[in-house]
Amino acid sequence: MKFDIAIIGGGLAGLTCGIRLAEQGKRCAIISAGQSALHFSSGSLDFLSYMPDGSVVKNPLDALEDLAKQSPEHPYSRLGADCVSQMAQQAERLLINCGLSFTGNVAQNHMRMTPLGTQRATWLSPTEVPTSTIGEALPWKRIAIIGIEGFLDFQPQLAAGSLEGKGIEAITDYLHVPALDRLRNNPSEFRATNISRVLDLAENTELLADELVRLAQDVDAVILPACIGLDNPDAVSLLCRRVGKPVMLVPTLPPSLLGIRMHQALRSRFRQLGGQFMPGDAVLRADLDGDKVKKIYTRNHTDIPVTAEQVVLASGSFFSNGLVADFDRTYEPIFGLDMMTESQRADWTKESMFASQPYLRFGVKTDNQLRAMIDGKIYLKSFCYRRGIRGL
Hints:
There is one protein chain. By secondary structure, the chain is an alpha/beta fold. The chain folds into 2 domains: 2-40 and 261-385, FAD/NAD(P)-binding domain; 137-255, Rossmann fold (3-Layer(aba) Sandwich), CATH 3.40.50.20. Helix content is 27%, strand content 22%. The protein is built from 10 helices and 22 strands. A 5-stranded parallel beta sheet has the order 12-2-1-15-22, covered by helices on one side. Strand 13 (283-289) and strand 14 form a beta hairpin. Mean pLDDT is 93; it is low at 388-392. Keywords: Flavoprotein, FMN, Oxidoreductase.
């Protein structure tokens, strides 16, 4: 199997890279070992929301110079402010072309509401997510926070408590839609994605709207767990029209509907452009020819290699096994690339769970073009490394 570009990793970094290259006419293959971390994410994307010292970033582009001083090894510092600014704007256009709709832009971060009712700085948020300008409260004075009877992955009382601490009046209630009764009988199946597949049916969306009209009297906005809109992107707009006020969504515990929806849109766009997506596969080894990756062998294709002019490693970090931690070392498992790490395990973490953890900064060493290295030297001229935009 011969391609122009082979991309190892089918998450956010791999898919956006593949889409960008496919738009330029390149024949691309993405080898994806497992479920994308997007399925576990909030659906919002960070660009530069917090500095290494923990301070909130209001204007990301203006903060790149300070980032280079605080963290000269950061990929943004490596690439340079001009390049990073240009690529961030390209990313915004790419996401729009995938049919995704976001609040925010690279010039200014905003605050998004979390499932606990707190606020977190971010770059882009799905348009259904409650957001506000940094330093300001949400734009509503009285909010109805509605849970789903029997759904344990979102507790409206927790969110309401946080909002009331900020001077917002929040009322809570639970909706009951009979169509969900079958799922409710099995708690392991009563998850956001399965609920959405029921509520996205037109007749059930109408029943949900009727229930919200009853529960959302005398409020400025309604907030629901993100359990609708996976298969029907117009469902939330319909609810807004029927209820007559904003109906907003907050992410739930995984599987996250907002993250899954983003992954599906990116994957669909990549395939639409002619890209080859290989799910459930894993790279086992590679044959090298001088300074070039000659062949890639995968678990599913055994002795049928993938060949490409260029190879991109976008396999992620520890969560997706792009990096591996043994008892006494961390390493990149496919090519054995140089790592930015700590040699002593005691230095990987800090005692306080809420402190900045050193292992989160571990990664593959690269040059200023993000080409990976071994023994301090550029490993392969046809090989580069990509890390995803973090969206927690």
